[in-house]
Amino acid sequence: MRNFSSKYMGAISADQVSDALNNADIVLHVESFKKNEKMKTRLSFSTKIVDCLASGWCVMDIGWHEAASIDYFIQNDAALVAFDEKSIAEQLKKVVENPDLLNEYAQKAWECGKRNHQIEDIQHNLYKDIYSLVNKDL
Q1: How much is the pLDDT for 138?
Q2: Whole-number pLDDT of residue 62
Q3: CATH number at residue 87
Q4: pLDDT at position 104, please?
Q5: Phi, psi at residue 61, to the nearest 5°?
Q6: For residue 113, which of 17, 51, 53, 85 is within the disulfide window of CB 3.0 to 4.6 Å?
Q7: ∠98-91-113 over CA atoms, to 5°?
């Protein structure tokens, strides 16, 4: 059986993010549970989500039910999702009991990133939207 532990890394520079992600078994994306922060971020989509998906590792998203990131990961089945301390423990217990979940969710995260976050597709769709707006009244 694998030995699971966590290590708080403290603040790291943007240049160190890729290395930190590459040295993890589970990459965390965490939303705040503080009311004022929840209201600020409830509809946001963090670029850190794309970093997590691109890491090639299993992602665990932790946050409140109505956070956009939680909904995104649930809709795409791309992460282990936890809403509170109890569900964090439940998700980790599932991984301990079935370590293959790490590989399964790593693959799901990678596929979600490929499907939804290709820069060429995003640029093409943005171009089409702008073109449509500009030519709407013509």
Answers
A1: 59
A2: 94
A3: 3.40.50.2000
A4: 97
A5: -105, 130
A6: 53
A7: 90
Q: Which domain holds residue 71?
A: 14-134
**Under 8 Å between Cβ of 62 and 40:** no
Query: What 3-state class would DSSP assign to 30?
Result: strand
**Is residue 4 in a domain?**
no
Which residues on adjacent β-strands are paired with residue 29? 61
Q: CA-to-CA distance for 88 and 6, rounded, in angstroms?
A: 13
pLDDT block averages, 10 residues each, the chain of length 138:
62 78 83 82 79 91 90 95 93 95 96 90 89 82
Phi and psi based region of residue 64 (left: phi greater than 0; alpha: psi -120 to 50; beta: remaining)? beta
The answer to whether residue 84 is domain-embedded is yes
The pair of three-digit structure tokens given for residue 13, joined into one six-digit string = 């520079």
* Mode of pairing for the β-strands spanning 26-30 and 58-62: parallel
Is residue 98 in a domain? yes
Count up the domains in the chain and report the number: 1
* pTM (predicted TM-score): 0.77
Query: Are residues 18 and 52 in contact, defined by beta-carbon separation less than 8 angstroms?
Result: no
Task: Return the ∠ at Cα 130 (arms to 126 and 136), rounded to 5°.
Answer: 145
- Asked whether residue 7 is assigned to any structural domain, the reply reads no
